[in-house]
Amino acid sequence: MFVEDTALVLEELAVITRPGAASRRPETESVAAALEAFRPVQRIGGPGTLDGGDVLHAGRSLFVGISGRTTRAGAEELARLVAPAKYQVRIVPVQGCLHLKSAVTEVGDATLLINPAWVDPASFAGLRLIPIDPREAFAANALRIGDLVIHAAAFPRTAARLRAEGFEVREVEADELAKAEGGVTCCSLLVADG
After folding, report:
1. Measured distance CA(60)–CA(73) in Å, rounded
2. DSSP string, 37-53
3. In what order do the strands lie in the sheet with 88-93?
């Protein structure tokens, strides 16, 4: 169900991850088979681990959260795999949540929605940051599809902040996902036309 953790899809290639939970590693084979029709596929081989929920793609930067599921070795292997395509991997410590994308997601070009209690805003210097409403700790997980931002309906104060900043927001019920600290990004892999 949380397919985002199994792969990272970039314009030039797809990277099949090595999930931090060993029980999830078999999920990657069917995802790899599906993505091979759309992108050249590379793989995180280990021993490091990398969950897709710990990778935030913003421009030519890939911010990688070091968490309970993603290790520095996994992030370093990702950096080697994407270097030929000219992506820069930036390591970001994560605290208080399972994955980086629980704490920060891209909502527009060079614009991030962030929970500054879980990730240091200084890690994203040069990008525009929109802080969540502090009463909605899990509200930073949003899914950008073009100019539309998909956001959990459970966080209306943060959705109002996004609208005030000019974003079109579509709120969806995600309460069942939230029971496993899942959010709207967790259930998708976006594959843009080349």
Report:
1. 21
2. TTS-EEE--SSS-B-GG
3. 55-58, 61-66, 88-93
Give the residue extent of every domain in the chain. Answer: 3-178
CA 93 to mean position of chain CA atoms: 14
* CA atoms 122, 78, 109, 168: torsion sign: negative
What is the predicted pLDDT for the residue at 181? 75
Cβ atoms < 10 Å from Cβ of 36: 12
Active site residue 186: yes
Q: Which of 57, 97, 151, 186 is catalytic?
A: 186
Backbone angles phi, psi at 147, to 5 degrees: -95, 0
86 φψ region: left (φ > 0), alpha (ψ -120 to 50), beta (else): left
Q: Does 3-178 carry CATH code 3.75.10.10?
A: yes
CB contact set of 131 (below 8 Å; sequence gap of 6+):
114, 115, 116, 161
Exactly one of 97, 99, 151, 187 is catalytic; which is it? 99
pLDDT tens by residue, 18-57: 999 999 999 999 999 999 999 999 999 999 999 999 999 9
- Residues 120-146 have a mean pLDDT of 97
Q: How are beta strands 14-16 and 41-43 bridged, if at all?
A: parallel
Residue 187 a catalytic site member = no
